[in-house]
C-alpha cells in the first residue's frame, strides 16, 4: 500500500510568493533590506563590526515580523501605535540590563571583544543592542499566534491571594538560591522573576499572564513560550560569526552546543519570554503609558 505524498506545485508556490510580495508593507521591505545588508557584513567584515550591525540587523527582523503579522491579521504592534511601538525599545534595554546584573553573580555568559571598549563605549553599544529584545519576542509571539488555533476554554480563574502569595514566596526563594549558590541554581534566573512579578501585577491591577489566560485560554502562553526559542535560534545563529560576540560557561550542561549555546540552554528561552511579558506589564502599569490590549498574543 503506497502512501500519498503531497506535491507542492512550483506555480502555486510562485503565486503565493507573489501575493506575499504584493501585500508586504513598505516597512517589511526596509526590514528585508536591513537583513540582506547587515547579516553578511556582520559575519564577514574584519574588526569590531557587530557593535555597528547588531541593532539594524535585529531592527530588520522586527520590521519583517511585524509586516507578516499585519498581512496575516490586519493589525500589528506598528499599526496599533508608533509611539507605543517605540516604547517597546525603550523598555527593553533596562529589562535586559537586569539580567546582565544577575550574570555578575552567575557568570554564565561572557563577551569576547569586551576589552576593546571603554566602559562607556561598551555600555552605550550594549544598551542600543538590548533595545531590540522585547520588540523581537513580542512581535514573534504575535506572528506565531496567527498560526495557533484559538483556545475555547477559559484557562484559569482569578488566582486567590494565598496562591499568589505562594508564587511570590517561591520566586524570592528561587532568587535567593541563585544568589547564594549560583553554580547549582543558575536556571532559576529564568523562572524566579515571573513568580515574583506576577503577584505584584495582580495585586496592583495590572495585566498578568493569569488574566490573559482567563480571557483567552492558553494560546497566548503557548505563543510566548514558542517565541522565546524562535528568537533564541536567531540570536545564537547571528551571534556565531559575530565580533564582539557572547560565549557561555554553563555548569553541568555545557555540552552538545548548537552555535555557542548548549542545547539544553535553549529551554531557558521559554520562561524568559514569560518573564519579559511580566516585566513589560509591570513597567507599563507603573508608567500608565500603554493600554492593556497593545500586545495581542491571543
Structural descriptors:
298 residues, two-stranded antiparallel sheet, globular
Describe the model.
Helix 3 runs parallel beside helix 5 and helix 6 (133-145) packs across helix 11. Strand 3 (257-258) and strand 4 (261-262) form a beta hairpin. The chain has helices at residues 10-23, 26-44, 50-73, 82-106, 119-130, 133-145, 161-180, 182-185, 192-204, 209-216, 219-240, 269-287, and strands at 109-112, 245-248, 257-258, 261-262. The longest helix is centred in the N-terminal third of the chain and has 25 residues, at 82-106. 65% of the residues lie in helices and 4% in strands. It starts with 9 loop residues before the first helix and ends in an 11-residue tail after the last helix. With 298 residues, the chain is mainly α. It has a domain at 24-150 and 218-287. The strands form two sheets. A two-stranded antiparallel ribbon has the order 1-2. Strands 3-4 form a two-stranded antiparallel sheet.
Average pLDDT over all residues? 92
How many strands appear in the DSSP assignment? 4
Strand order in the largest sheet: 1-2
- Overall, the morphology is globular
Helix content: 55-70%
Distance from N terminus to C terminus (CA atoms, Å) equals: 42 Å
The profile of the biggest β sheet is:
2 strands, antiparallel
Radius of gyration: 20 Å
Contiguous runs where pLDDT drops below 50 for at least 5 residues: none
H-E order: HHHHEHHHHHHHEEEH
What is the overall number of helices?
Answer: 12
Helix/strand-derived category reads: mainly alpha
Strand content: under 5%
Amino acid at each position: 500500500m503506497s502512501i500519498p505524498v503531497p506535491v507542492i506545485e512550483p506555480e502555486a508556490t510562485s503565486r503565493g510568493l507573489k501575493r506575499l510580495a504584493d501585500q508586504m508593507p513598505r516597512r517589511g521591505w526596509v526590514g528585508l533590506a536591513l537583513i540582506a545588508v547587515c547579516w553578511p557584513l556582520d559575519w564577514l567584515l574584519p574588526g569590531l563590526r557587530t557593535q555597528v550591525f547588531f541593532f539594524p540587523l535585529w531592527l530588520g527582523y522586527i520590521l519583517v515580523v511585524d509586516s507578516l503579522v499585519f498581512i496575516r491579521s490586519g493589525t500589528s504592534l506598528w499599526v496599533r501605535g508608533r509611539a507605543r511601538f517605540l516604547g517597546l525599545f525603550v523598555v527593553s534595554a533596562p529589562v535586559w540590563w537586569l539580567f546582565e546584573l544577575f550574570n555578575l553573580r552567575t557568570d554564565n555568559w561572557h563577551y569576547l571583544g569586551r576589552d576593546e571598549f571603554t566602559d562607556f563605549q561598551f555600555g552605550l553599544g550594549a544598551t542600543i543592542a538590548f533595545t531590540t529584545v522585547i520588540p523581537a519576542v513580542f512581535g514573534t509571539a504575535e506572528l506565531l499566534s496567527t498560526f495557533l488555533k484559538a483556545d475555547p476554554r477559559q484557562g484559569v480563574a482569578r488566582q486567590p491571594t494565598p496562591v499568589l502569595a505562594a508564587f511570590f514566596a517561591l520566586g524570592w526563594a528561587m532568587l535567593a538560591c541563585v544568589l547564594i549558590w549560583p553554580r547549582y541554581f543558575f536556571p532559576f534566573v529564568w523562572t524566579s522573576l515571573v513568580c515574583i512579578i506576577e503577584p505584584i501585577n495582580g495585586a496592583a491591577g495590572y495585566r498578568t499572564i493569569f488574566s490573559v489566560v482567563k480571557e483567552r485560554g492558553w494560546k497566548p502562553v503557548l505563543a510566548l513560550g514558542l517565541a522565546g526559542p524562535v528568537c533564541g535560534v536567531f540570536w545564537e545563529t547571528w551571534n556565531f560569526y559575530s565580533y564582539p560576540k557572547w560565549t557561555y560557561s554553563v555548569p553541568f550542561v555545557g555540552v552538545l552546543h548548537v552555535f555557542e549555546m548548549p542545547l539544553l540552554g535553549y529551554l531557558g528561552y521559554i520562561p524568559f519570554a514569560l518573564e519579559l511579558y511580566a516585566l513589560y506589564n509591570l513597567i507599563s502599569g507603573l508608567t500608565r503609558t500603554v493600554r492593556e490590549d497593545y500586545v495581542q498574543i491571543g
